[in-house]
From TrEMBL:
GO terms for biological process: sulfate assimilation. The keyword RNA-binding does not apply. Coiled coil: none annotated. InterPro entries: Inositol_monoP_metal-BS, Inositol_monoP_superfamily, Inositol_monophosphatase-like. One of its GO terms (molecular function) is 3'(2'),5'-bisphosphate nucleotidase activity. Pfam families: Inositol_P (PF00459). Belongs to the inositol monophosphatase superfamily. This is PAP-specific phosphatase, mitochondrial. It comes from Erythroxylum novogranatense. The keyword Phosphoprotein does not apply. Keywords: Hydrolase, Magnesium, Metal-binding. Mg(2+) binds at E70, D130, I132, D133, D305. Its cofactor is Mg(2+). It comes from the Eukaryota.
């Protein structure tokens, strides 16, 4: 039903990933581009550039569909980075936007910022964007994972989602080692993952990363969650900001990151990767079986950290709920649609062990 929106989302996320790669190349030699937001999470020109680019591109095609996104130009204005953002956006924008002004870019950013859109209790259609999920990973080095995530919500239902991860790694058949190069000898190119309601989840290599056409790199491949039916055989991941010890399952199961020495009542905890959306990609692609996040009193859970990941996991055969088994409620923030309030936490699984884990969480709590 939403093929036009999906095509547009794929195109703009690919452009956004290319923007991120370009900014990252210059970032390593220019520390002035790295800042700290008020919530102490790092932010760069890329965050603002992606939000402006996505906002501009989508507004041209779908002018009546509003945008909910993470960034706000107020922070950008006070740090003298507007010129840099205009430059990177102009470089990637459509030909009709090659004469962008400061005002154009700042307005595009604020179209998705706080107070930009006031919803009623029954919003019809809107985009949810995370310009860069895992900015800490973006800053760490060339190999760290980060994701550009975009979802479309219609009548409170997520109908499509697109995630681009420029540094995504392939996994060897034994699923224990990353493959540093493709079969052709070239470095892995990163991937774009898409999902449409009722049509599955699909991935394709990002063509711009290797400077080759999509035809050369191959077409779309459908992806599925793993087939693990045993909690003790499952591969778990948790937020980088949390430890296994604070998860209720730690009262019943120990965790190790050594796949070769898993003991009795011990699960495999995969190495951390920045951002929630990377974990959703891992579950949707079968790299991980479970992603579990505890809701902490001092930390707000944002819609853009979960919306696009939810549809990608669900369309790949998995399941996403809060810790009481309820669906994530995108309408909880009735005014701005920016915050969600999952009961106790978020549970993302391959679906086969979902209810078992919910029972264990309930028992442990």
């Amino acid at each position: 039903m939403y093929h036009r929106e999906l095509e547009a989302a794929v195109n703009v996320v690919q452009k956004a990933c290319s923007l991120c790669v370009d900014v990252k190349k210059s970032l390593l030699s220019n520390e002035a581009r790295i800042l700290e937001k008020n919530d102490n999470t790092p932010v760069t020109v890329a965050d603002f550039g992606v939000q402006a680019l996505v906002s501009l591109e989508l507004r041209k095609l779908f002018p009546t569909i509003p945008l909910v996104a993470e960034e706000d130009s107020g922070f950008l204005r006070t740090n003298n980075l507007v010129d840099s953002v205009v430059s990177v956006v102009t470089n990637k924008a459509s030909s009709s936007d090659k004469t962008l002004t400061h005002a154009d870019v700042l307005e595009a950013i604020d179209r998705g910022g706080k107070k930009a859109i006031i919803y009623g209790t029954k919003p019809a259609t809107y985009w949810i964007l995370d310009p860069i999920d895992g900015t800490k990973g973006f800053l760490k080095g060339c190999e760290a994972l980060y994701v550009v995530g975009l979802a479309l919500v219609v009548e409170d239902q997520i109908v499509l989602g697109v995630m681009g991860c420029p540094n995504w790694k392939e996994i060897a058949p034994d699923k224990s080692k990353e493959v540093p190069e493709s079969e052709s000898g070239h470095p892995t190119a990163g991937v774009i993952m898409v999902a449409h309601l009722g049509c599955g989840t699909w991935t394709k290599k990002l063509p711009s990363m290797l400077g080759r056409s999509a035809e050369v790199l191959g077409g779309w491949s459908r992806c599925f969650v793993d087939a693990c039916c045993s909690i003790l055989e499952a591969r778990f991941c948790i937020p980088d900001s949390q430890t296994w010890e604070i998860q209720p399952l730690s009262r019943l199961l120990n965790a190790t990151d050594d796949a070769d020495s898993i003991g009795d009542k011990e699960i495999l905890l995969l190495p951390g990767c920045c951002g929630s959306l990377c974990k959703y990609m891992m579950v949707a692609s079968g790299k991980a079986s479970v992603f579990i996040q505890k809701a902490l009193d001092q930390k707000v859970i944002k819609a853009w950290d979960h919306a696009v990941g939810t549809i990608c996991v669900q369309e790949a055969g998995g399941k996403v709920t809060d810790w009481k088994g309820g669906q994530l409620d995108l309408t909880a923030d009735q005014v701005e649609r920016r915050i969600i309030f999952p009961a106790d936490g978020v549970l993302v699984t391959n679906g086969k062990i979902h209810n078992q884990i919910l029972d264990m969480i309930s028992s442990a709590i």
